[in-house]
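Sequence only, no structure available. Ideas?
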Amino acid sequence: MKFKQHPRYPNQIILTETEYWLLTLWDNQYYLGRASIELRDTSKRHLSELSRNEVLELFYIIKQYENALKKSFNTTNFNWTCLMNNSYKEENKNNPEPLHLHVWPRYKEKVSFMDDVFEDKIFGHHYDKNKKKYVKREFLINLADTILSNWKE
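Reply:
I predicted one. Tokens follow.
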């Protein structure tokens, strides 16, 4: 399948798009399935500003994504964050980031995918955002295909 690249982050691919949200796979896949969900409406900065329909669609995507990852890789847990800290940095004052959530899939056991092994060495503790395992676009496309093959509408 052909996937679009993220307009602001060319090393990421868009897994799925909805009326309000983009779900994007990151090129740092230390935590296999690492992704973010980004609101299309760039005027909103806080979860409390979301409309009922935006919230319902967000939780629909979360449910579908978690279920697809569990089916694809037997994911044990999911760490979700909505920090928005970069939006308040001086260098971003004229170009704030859209409201978004990060997901850090967590694995109690090692996972093999495309001849590579993924091991969450600190499972049971807070994720480490400094862990790095950059993958090529071909890997992300295969990952996206695998996840979407287990996505239930």
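The first strand starts at residue 13 and ends at 17.
Hope that gets you unstuck.
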